[in-house]
Amino acid sequence: MWNHFFLLEEYTGTDHQYVGKLHSDQDRGDGSVKYVLTGDGAGSLFLIDENSGDIHATKKLDREEKTFYTLRAQAVNKLTGKPVEPESEFIIKIHDINDNEPKFTKDTYVASVPEMSDVGTFVVQVTAKDADDATYGNSAKLVYSILQGQPYFSVEPETGIIRTALPNMNRENKEKYQVVIQAKDMAGQMGGLSGTTTVNITLTDVNDNPPRFPQSTYQLWTSESGETGSSIGRIKATDADLGENAEIQYNIIDGDGRDMFSVVTDKATQEGIVTLKKQLDFENKRIYTLKVEAANTRVDSRFLNFGPFKDTANVKITVQDVDEPPVFSRPSYVMDVHEDMNVGSIIGAVTAWDPDAANNQVRYSIDRHTDLDRNFNIDSGNGSISMLKSLDREASSWHNITVIATETNNPKQMSRVPVFIKVLDVNDNAPEFAMFYETFVCENVKAGQLIQTISAVDTDEPLIGHKFFFSLNSENPNFTISDNEDNTASILTRKSGFSRREMATYFLPVVISDSDYPIQSSTSTLTIQVCACDSRVIVVLFAALRKQKKKEPLIISKEDVRDNIVSYNDEGGGEEDTQAFDIGTLRNPEVMDTNKLRRDIIPEMLFPCRRASPIKNNADVRDFINHRLHENDNDPTAPPYDSLATYAYEGNGSIAESLSSLESAATDCDQDYDYLSNWGPQFKKLADMYIGKDTDKDS
Predict the structure, then answer these.
(1) Which membrane topology term applies here (predicted)?
(2) What pairs with residue 263 in β-bridges?
(3) Burial class of 690 by CB neighbour count within 10 A (0 to 12, 13 to 18, 19+)
(4) In this structure, how many other beta carbons lie within 10 angstroms of the beta carbon of residue 198?
């Protein structure tokens, strides 16, 4: 029965502490058996008497370090060394004594609880530990008590839970509390050990205080020149609460300045900023009164019985006078004047005045930077604007000037206003030809033949639009005019047949009048030239030859070709105008294409002097054109249909040479028109005209 031994910890005696005795049934007391001890602390902490089996502890033990020791014992024959019994295991258990005081898990606790909380509201729980054996006696049985913090807080003895003990604790009166809690073992009895901890408790804020203005009336001042949106001043209601519980919203709820001022809340300072909503006028109103309300943005329904969470105050705003510049009656002026009004006539007037209480006199002037021609003048006293020069609507229909109004007593105070003067039209311009007309009449023309349609322009602008009338200033035996009643007229032949040899040029005076008041009219002369017109081709060639003169090619460089279109905005015509139709090639099919020059660069030689013009059989040109057109339409190497090449010169590979005025007479030698006689009967009259002219000139 020795398999359990008990030993009291913290032995303080001078001798070794006796543990117990081992004994074997095989030990007859004759000294033949010895006892051997092995295991935890055997031979050092625990010693055994090998003859008697008594076990002693050599030093004091601490249960909190080790609660029990496991050892093995065996009885052995001294002579043979053999065990007389099997080895047995036993335990030495250390008995606890109350040698450890309770210790809290934290040296200091931090907790918070809302102010105005009910009695018994949970605050925090504290916990202490005792290293003694909780299963043996009361050494580890703890009891909590409050040493400091009454009567505000209490602690539950068994759990260590701290609760509020006083109702309506107000943060605004006292915010922080320090509570000391004790934990004592031995169930709190006398002689028990104890430990303490500190609990720092803060009352958190609730919205239990309404905002309050420290004064009932505020006085603010502002200048009448203050800008819209600018701050006039600040007011502030105090709130004992913190954070969102102290947030305030300011509003104007009454007063004669509600339309002129506004109030906003500065979130950082919780102040009400009074700002200007509209422009002030000292002369109109000098004092304004506002009733401003300050209210909490968040209200706790638990504390509504504390009263309304808002307050009001009166704000008196005084407007201060400043010297203001003159004020015009309008932001801008628009005036009308007829262009035929006499110099010195009054067009209109502007009005300005001093808005200040002094009502100083105002003088007017024109900003001459806006009237460089000095067309207008203004009366410095009454602001009437008059003309210094005659106006011409056709030269300028609007005049925009700036008028300056200046206080006589303070020239620095000035204002400007734009004045827009519209010049009204007067029918003072006669209609005239819309363009220069180049009119021709054929020798073989018939009577009543239309040879020209003319129109007119008028720089005036009547309200109902232009209406022109055309007539001849006298009876003309050769030509007549027909008014088309659409602001155009037709020039007709009055007789059949004209002779260029008798008179090559006719001058026809045409009278053009308008329908406005006063009626304006003018006489324009139409130049009509007589030409020999056997066929359409002769008309075209004649027109070209008549204008024949040397022109510089428009293509200066082959680099001046853009994309796939070359446009010269000049007249075409002639044999080598396009790649597809070459009169020389049509009349001479045997001429090879290799003899042709490129038409998109300047050729080395434009037009030589007169050369022979061999033409075979005088074949009809139309047939050659149709034949050549068919060949090119079926030629895969021909230019595509979306390709356009226009040239300002005729080329130099043509057998018939150029028929156009372009690039004619490229050298200093005179043109010789004898070759025209070789072109066939269709060009006979043309040849007679120019060969005959050369003959007359030579003679």
Answers:
(1) Single-pass type I membrane protein
(2) 274
(3) middle
(4) 18
Q: Is the Cβ–Cβ distance between 100 and 131 less than 8 Å?
A: yes
Q: What are phi and psi of 111, to 5 degrees?
A: -145, 165
Contacts with 146 (C-beta within 8 Å, 6 or more apart), sequence order = 153, 154, 155, 162, 179, 180, 181, 182
CA-CA distance, 537 to 547, in Å (whole number)?
A: 16
Q: Are 309 and 299 in contact (CB under 8 A)?
A: yes
Strand, helix or coil for residue 161: strand
The answer to whether 40 and 71 are in contact (CB under 8 A) is yes
Coil, helix or strand for 198?
Answer: strand
**What residue has token string 């262009």?**
339
* Nearby residues of 647 by Cβ (< 8 Å), 6 or more positions away: 555, 566, 568, 572, 576, 577, 599, 600
- Alpha carbon distance 23, 73 (integer Å): 10
C-alpha angle 646-650-653 in degrees, rounded to nearest 5:
120
Residue 451 and residue 493 in contact, taking contact as beta carbons nearer than 8 Å? yes
What's the token pair of residue 665? 């007479």
Instruction: Specify whether the CB–CB gap between 456 and 498 falls below 8 A.
Output: no
User: Per-residue b/e over 326-344, b at no fewer than 16 CB within 10 Å?
Assistant: bebeeeebebebebebeee
The answer to whether residues 287 and 318 touch, using CB atoms and an 8 Å cutoff, is yes
Can you name the residues that pair with 491 across neighbouring β-strands?
A: 452, 481
Q: What is the value of pTM for the model shown?
A: 0.44
Phi, psi angles (nearest 5°) of residue 319: -90, 130
Per the CB < 8 A criterion, the answer to whether 162 and 125 are in contact is yes
What the block records as the tokens of 59 is 């030093």
Nearest-10 crossing angle of helices 684-698, 536-546: 30
Low-confidence ranges of the chain (pLDDT < 70): 1-3, 534-622, 636-672, 677-678, 680-682, 684-685, 691-699
State percent of the chain over pLDDT 70.
79
Six-digit token string for 244: 């969102």
Place of tokens 């005792």: 130
Using an 8 Å Cβ cutoff, are 389 and 374 in contact? yes
